[in-house]
Each structure stands twice: as C-alpha cells, then as structure tokens.
Design a protein that fits this description.
By secondary structure, this protein is an all-alpha fold. The chain has one domain (about 1-40). About 30% of the residues lie in helices and about 0% in strands.
Length: about 40
C-alpha cells in the first residue's frame, strides 16, 4: 500500500484515459483507485 490518499489529478488521469479512444476495448470493468488499501 502507498499509505496515502490519491491526488485528484491521479484520478482525473484515469478518467481521461477511460474517456479516450485508447480505452475503446475496456468495458464493464471495476477499477479501484485506492493505493492498494483494499485488495481482493
């Protein structure tokens, strides 16, 4: 675990990627942004 909360810019980077054409083959996924604090 990273031991810190995510910076808003880190979350925005993922959101921008998922909204881009580069993520066109990603669908129906749950992507946890938690710095490894919760791992299944």
């Amino acid at each position: 675990p990273q031991g810190r909360f995510a910076d808003p810019a880190e979350i925005a980077d993922l959101a921008l990627f998922l909204a881009s054409a580069r993520a066109r083959h990603i669908c129906g996924e749950v992507i946890n942004i938690n710095g490894g604090l919760h791992m299944d």
